[in-house]
Design goal:
Length: 197
């Protein structure tokens, strides 16, 4: 089904489209057993410039080089009235119905969402200007603020220092201290001095 939008099946239930900036993806996961399965859908953007900026930060080169999504959302976060966190299935016919719901969601909202956030300027606005919206969508873990600062540097934001303080305060408010704060401080103090030519 995703072929008409140039998405290839990267592995079972993971469809990815290569783009000039990285890739867009639709992902389905199935958990449970033969009596009751639960299906969950995600849609996401990988922006290579953002992820490659973070490769050396965490010492997780393979993770960031191969599989990390800059923005990965559960479909219910985009359309909460029509989607639930987990969709239960007892029979194959229910699985088919849920698959049809996912395709309808992508045609109705998902592909447009992915197309909108493929632009670094739109990611910057979401990560750095709309943190409350982002936190609602992504559970706002500590990697989110690292990505936000990487995006701020890539966009050469004039308010880099203000964003640095805002995101650092967020980390502290979540009780994240010690190595994470140190990594944040050293990484983005260093990035501030670099020129992107």
């Amino acid at each position: 089904y995703f072929h008409h939008k140039n998405y290839d099946e990267k592995k079972p239930l993971v469809y990815e489209r290569q783009t000039s900036f990285g890739s867009s993806a639709f992902i389905a996961t199935i958990t449970g057993n033969e009596d009751l399965a639960y299906v969950k859908f995600f849609t996401g953007i990988r922006h290579d410039l953002v992820e490659l900026n973070l490769v050396n930060t965490f010492g997780l080169a393979e993770y960031f080089n191969k599989s990390s999504y800059t923005l990965l959302l559960n479909s219910k976060d985009l359309d909460p009235e029509r989607f639930y966190t987990f969709l239960p299935c007892k029979h194959l016919s229910e699985m088919t119905t849920i698959g049809d719901m996912a395709l309808d969601f992508m045609d109705y909202k998902g592909f447009d969402f992915l197309n909108h956030y493929k632009h670094l300027s739109n990611l910057d606005r979401l990560f750095n200007d709309l943190p409350s919206k982002l936190s609602k969508w992504t559970n706002h873990n500590y990697l989110t603020v690292f990505r936000a600062m990487a995006i701020a540097k890539l966009k050469n934001r004039s308010d880099y220092d203000r964003l640095f303080q805002m995101h650092r305060v967020y980390l502290e408010s979540r009780g994240l201290t010690g190595p994470i704060i140190e990594k944040f401080d050293t990484t983005f103090a260093h990035l501030k001095k670099l020129s992107l030519n």
